[in-house]
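Why this split exists: single-chain examples teach little about how molecules sit against one another. For that reason, every record in the complexes split bundles all components of an assembly together and asks for one structure covering all of them. Below is a record exactly as it appears in the raw files.
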Amino acid sequence: PVFNTNDWVYGRDAWFATAAPPDQGGYGLIVRVFEGRAKKVDGNPDFPGIHGKSDARAQALVQELYHPDRLSGARRATSRGSGQFQTIPWDSALQEVAQILREVGGEHAVLITGRLNASQAAIVAAFRKATGIRQAVLEPDEFVVLRTAIRRLFGVSTLPIPDLANARFLLNFSADFLHGWIAPVALAHAYGEFRQGKPGQRGLYYHVGPRLSGTAANADRWFPIIPGSEGLVALAIAQVLSTEGKAPQDRLDPYLTALGLDATRLASDYAPERVAPATGLSAEQIRELAHALVEHQPAVVIAGTSAAAATNGLFNLVATFGLNWILGSVNQPGGLLLNPEPPLPDLRVPDDAILSLRGWTELFEQIRSGTISTVLVYRANPVYALPSASGAREALQAAKHVVSFSPFLDETTTLADLVLPDQAWLEQWGLSVPDPGPGFAAVAIQQPVVAPFLDARAFGDVLLDLLRLLGQDQPWSTQEQATKALALQLRSLGRGSVTATNDKEFLVTLQARGGWWDEQSRATGSAPSTAAVQPREPAFAGEQNQFPYVLHPYPLPSLGYGELAHLPWLQGLPEPISTNVWQTWIEVSQATADELGLQTGDLVRVLTPQGVAELPVYVNPATQPGIIAIPFGQGHTAYTRYAEGRGVNPATLVAPETEPDTGTFAWAATRCRIEKTGRRARLARFEGMVPAFQLEEFPIVRVMAPKA
Amino acid sequence: MPRWGMVIDLDRCIGCGACVVACQAENNVPINTEDVYHQRRAIAWIRLERYWEGEYPNIKARYIPVPCMQCTNAPCEPVCPVYATYHTNEGINMQVYNRCIGTRYCAVNCHWHVRFFNFWEPKWPDSLKNQLNPDVTVRSRGVMEKCNFCVHRLVKAEQKAKTEKRSLRTDEVTTACAQACPTSAIVFGDLDDPNSAVSKLLAQAEQEGRVYRLLEDLGTDPKVYYLKKIDLEAAEHAATH
């Protein structure tokens, strides 16, 4: 950490190891610091899985640190929801929050958080235990579905990671794994090795999904399908493997068990010819996929993003990931590596704290009815992220007390009475357990790379201060102390990459290397013993005759689901397929554009059973006819000068459909129609700044066939 | 003396834009606002281009990162009336900001569109200025700017080697884009050092027939080499692909 004032005087670079935020992967970073100011973020070359690499989101962490609209100082709202706040002393703010908790009691309060790093999770666990407060964690619902599918299929609570670097074939169902999803840097690095890491052996990648995403564009073949039919395609692949004798019984059994099927039903009900019409593929294409899986071993199958956001999302993920059982790819080199539990039990957020849309709706109902009167919110923005039908806004308006720990005035924080801003990630202590890990136990240490830039306090420090004010025992006095104490528990395990003769040496080595990992600590997992889910076809809100198109939202590679819309570098980074920036648009196919007489830049009205919005058109030649694609990310009504008032939040357009088993938000399950307005809008995009056509004689991007 | 060059493997590139943002962070490139895009004046020393090929459903989107090609016979150099654009002994095409008078002749003569003119004074909110890299000049209104292979990193590494009385080690230094690139599609190094990663990569790719340079027929001898993307259906395309 930065504690040496000489760093400020010498005019020399200093490099500090730290960790990425948990929702960006939590992997190890190094930060260049010059004269007390963070200048550049890169991946930690020592940290497993990422090999010193990073992505645009990690690069932009310095903009979070030095953001012009970051909150400094504790503050109190002049009136709830006005967006106007008065700065107050930290001690008063802490006393007020403690008084609130004392008055209402923990059982009538809820702590809503985003994803927590490991030491924050430990502090929150201690805070819960002492106060009895309920914890609710908000993360994109697709990951709730993914966690459920993985737990039921493989018996582990952590996310798995495909061993792409050693695979020869990747079959991906809709997951945007190179540009977002669960571990973009580790997976992108492995993808590079998959393609060109071994001379004479190039991995093959087939993508099955409704949209040619930035990830899908890299595939050797793209198989466009009807949205939500990923699971049916997977079942038909399993049927081909089974009936052609390419699936040994002991490998087929876990798959059939997970889906509550027997071999006879699989053979009769899910033959490619029967399934094909519901998927948009031909029976021959399904057979081609099945044959590719057995011809190119080792092979691995992954699925996610929109596949998980359908009304049959859990079935889609179980049926697709389950193919790894048939292929014998689970926990094998080049297959799907399961990850172990964190090395210390305290470092984990309990599964029951991560809520689905159904859980959120119930929670907000309890708040509206007064059962829960006090809401504490930390780095979560439910008012923006959840559909309005969840009742988030009304609940927060009705709550007696709302306290936010956000460093920015986002939509949820605007409704708070008190704001106790958190420090930036680069100013904090913490332990981070990447989820997914690299296939074995790994912990990154997060340490302050600069002295605090503004008057903010780490969330963990505030919780521990509150415990003190409430007269409760503090397990640690600060987030720093918690981090170090937990780190020393790692030492007491007596294994791992950091060895030391005493505690101080252990901590210094840990900080210098950026983390601790133990390649011997791996997960074994277990095959399912009961049905994880029943096969199910996707359903869509809206009648097809009124709403002829499927509205297909997708998270932006740069802005995700909108949580990074406050960072200008990421706003200005073109979306890889459309090259659009700074706004929301809809993507229509060339066929639809021709049919309706639309051109790029035409302003249209998008109508769904849920809502209406006016948006500019981008004619995307790779869009399937029948689908209207729309990116998440914009539509903020607050959240700094760079995000506020731009575009539309697709969560306001999609119906609050849910996946029945998990109760998660099925945001890819709404139909829409579009109406011309006769007006045009300026679409900010990179395309067209330089000539965007391939020269016929001398193509810009040259390709060649693989060597035989 | 090194001869710096870059190899970009299009079969590894995934179009993520990490190189673009890493370059912005390293080289104090101004924020590309919405207005800037509307005016078609976004500055990106390395940019990510996307090309379409074919028609739905047999359509492909292809990515290519494009930095300055660092031409050996750079067409941007002879047209500068004030010698603001010149060539270093190490093969880098440089821009002297305080010599530039903004004629923009160099930009007109660059076929790769990798030179950018500052039509306005670059602006950052005060707090964001804390991030600016002290090793890199913030360019003012009226001058050209462009990729220079992170020359400040090269100079710093060379000075360090000199202080330690040794020569620069193989692959001791790299550019910000290559450092960030998660798939290792971008590799930077000394083309004259047979042990460097770029030289080895080029030697291997030459054998596979994968090496080409952008607009190579113009004869400017660029020092950015591309490795062709592998495409299963390439044989069905035109022979030049």
